[in-house]
Design goal:
Helices cover 25% and strands 29% of the residues. By secondary structure, the protein is α+β, with helices and mostly antiparallel strands. Helix 1 crosses helix 2.
Length: 165
């Protein structure tokens, strides 16, 4: 969990630095592609400064591996059980499997609709593996956002694959 703590601290400082104190009538007026690009760059720079191994999926999702799993990676049609935390780059958690039932979520990969960045990123993990994924808004909730997630908001998902069937 030291890895998760490091990510949270870096995200918190990046968020504080990037958001400033601008007051607008539209609370999301400053949430632009340029802001998002700056947040992503700041996050990546923070990972490099911490000498963490940043990798990229074939579709452009950045991730920092934590644990290497065993066996085959997640594929379409697999029933996948995960533990996860979804947060903004400032460390604010907006969703987590720990908030539900037994602390896990089970879904059928590529059948149950999840955001594109999750579906693409998790395919690098196998059973027991975990990583932190930086998902740009284009592969998340885009220009419109969703519920408490603002537009053009990059997201961090820390995902551990508990089981693959």
């Amino acid at each position: 969990m030291k890895f998760v703590l490091k990510i949270l601290i870096i995200a918190l400082f990046a968020g504080i630095f990037a958001t400033g104190c601008n007051k607008n009538e539209d609370p999301y007026a400053g949430y632009t592609p340029a802001r998002e690009a700056a947040l992503i760059k700041s996050w990546l720079d923070g990972m490099v400064a911490k000498k963490l191994n940043i990798d990229t999926t074939s579709t452009g999702i950045f991730y920092v591996p934590d644990k290497v799993g065993t066996g085959a990676t997640v594929k379409a049609g697999n029933k996948v059980t995960v533990k996860y935390t979804g947060m903004f780059l400032d460390g604010t958690v907006f969703d987590a499997s720990a908030l539900r039932g037994d602390g896990t979520m089970t879904y059928v990969h590529k059948t149950d609709r999840l955001i594109q960045g999750w579906e693409e990123g998790i395919e690098v993990l196998s059973k027991g593996g975990s990583a932190a994924f930086l998902i740009p808004s284009a592969k998340g909730y885009g220009a419109t956002g969703y519920s408490t997630i603002p537009p053009y908001q990059p997201l961090i998902f820390i995902i551990e694959v508990v089981n693959i069937q």
